[in-house]
Amino acid sequence: MRLATWNVNSIRQRERHVRRWLERVQPDLLLLQEIKCEAGNFPAETFRTLGYETVAVGQKAYNGVAVLSRVPFAVHHHALPGLPEDDAQARYIELEAGGATIVNIYLPNGNSGGEAGFAYKLAWMDCLAERTAALLDADTPAIIAGDFNVCPTDEDFAPGTLPATDALVRPESRARYRRLIWSGLTDAVRALQPAGRVYTFWDYQAGAWRRNAGLRIDHVLLSPTLAERLVAAEPDRHERGEDQPSDHVPVLVELS
What we know:
The protein has helices at residues 11-25, 44-48, 114-137, 171-182, 188-192, 208-211, 224-227, and strands at 2-7, 29-33, 53-57, 65-69, 73-77, 92-97, 100-106, 142-147, 186-187, 201-202, 214-215, 218-222, 230-235, 251-255. By secondary structure, it is an alpha+beta fold.
């Protein structure tokens, strides 16, 4: 299985980027975040012509996640279990494909809305931890992937790019990310590249891409049985150098 996660920062603006990338890389599954459109406006037919069926959980102008798959799949959840039923933010989809449960997330940033916005991020992460625990307790082969909006350690962001007060690096955010790892999940990229500058996001401002002043906030976490099958995991930096790119790049993982 070859699976990738990619925050495209608007599918309407990056449809050709995604199409070109699919033609070049041909993963089995592609998990998209921040599609910024309602599900009915997602360009499913474009990707169907390439052999990918799609499912999207959308929201007008904000958030939104989608999965593109060349293998049969069945959707289990269109929202994160445990959140209030009236939560309208489109940030989660869970499905079964290729013998595994695939969870695609767009975790709240936590920097907007003051302390209430940060509290929402933490509550969301707590619900994700509970859902992850349920999957692991059932011995379900699982992949939790997407834009986590967390830099797990200081090595996951370039010096000077974030203040200590940023929600991506606050101790509470990192503690909840560690809770996922300690529950038994494996960070695919760090399993194969345990140290060094590995980034998945570069801001559009201040020449961040040119200076390689990036962040690693897009992650693929694997349950134990899938971690044993890990062959490769790496961000595709090529995409950030394209014309009018997303500020994130795909993270591609290969399992034997």
